[in-house]
Amino acid sequence: MSITLNDQDRPELQKIIQEMADSGFVGVRLRVQDERGVWVGTAGVAELGQSAEPPVNGHVRIGSVTKTFTATLVLRLVAEGKIGLDTPADDYLPEFGLDRRITVRMLLQHTSGIFNFTGDYYPEYVPGIVWSGQAWVNDRFKTYQPEELVRLALTKPARFEPGTDWSYANTNYVLARLLIEKVTGRTYAEEMHRLILGPLALTGTVAPTTQTDLPEPHAHAYYRYEENGQEKTADVTRQNPSWISSGGDMISTPQDLHTFISALVGGKLLPTGLLAEMCTPESKVGYGLGVFVQETEGGGTVITHNGGHGGHAGLMYSTPDGGTTLTAAINYIDDADLSMGEAFQKATQRLVNEVFGNGRTESAQ
Fold first, then answer.
1. Domain 2-364 in CATH: superfamily?
2. 360 CB-side CA count, 13 A
3. Counting C-beta atoms within 10 Å of the first and last residue's C-beta, which end of the chain has fewer, N or C?
4. What pLDDT, in 10s, does the model give residues 9-30?
5. Active site residues
């Protein structure tokens, strides 16, 4: 189903998301806004075994899109003079004994070298907390404290000397959360509402910390695992996201993600200088401060962060001026083998090429 908020239909977009549903995704809700207007489409179902379509602007766990919100919150506090971007993180969080060379900027850019508490995949897998398989399904309502996650990570050797390389680590963003709470004296969720969610009226967005339920409406998410030699599929829509904390715990909607990213790149949340620093990528993988800066097929640029885990995923893309955005909520059947990973990447690339390709972002640079 598609809803076109102007006179243009977008059958090419509907075709892509329908093919996503046909390939195994449970439900897809896509929102595109550009010079042609706003287009919203859905494909698949809201719940396995049922016929109802996914809610057009339903809630979804956005995974690591959370990092862009968290980084923006830290930078808002930098603008308020409460945090120094190049100050050692140890100055704010001395209880962890962090390497004094690790700055706040390195946390946001994943250049700290700190171990990732959800596991280090390179050069060979080193386990962190349990976040997949039957054990996770059975224990998915457990509460982890942010300090617990950080201390687990710090028992592992650093990946590299601070500032000398890049390695994605959820630990960096849990430290950012604790930093926010330390300098403000308020919770991460309270500060998120004060500085971002409230001013932008993002009523569909939540920083849940330990909250297990999603607000209505929402599609369902699933996890496939093996028990006693038999394959089972569990509905994991309800779960306690404290295992990922501020590295990926937030809930949002495609509409709210559009409002957030367009406001962010449009200069409504950060001073010009800090926004420029946020969108200046390090050279290895093109990661700025909580965002990826990527080139498109047509030679343009998009500011983006995606995220997914436990059968939920969020997409968020924008041209640098906010004139064109692509946001989406996706639900699927996750598993320990990440079998949907390749399909997810291919489908995402097709959407980006369709919306931002062929030089469409050149005028926005």
1. DD-peptidase/beta-lactamase superfamily (3.40.710.10)
2. 20
3. C
4. 899 999 999 999 999 999 999 9
5. 64
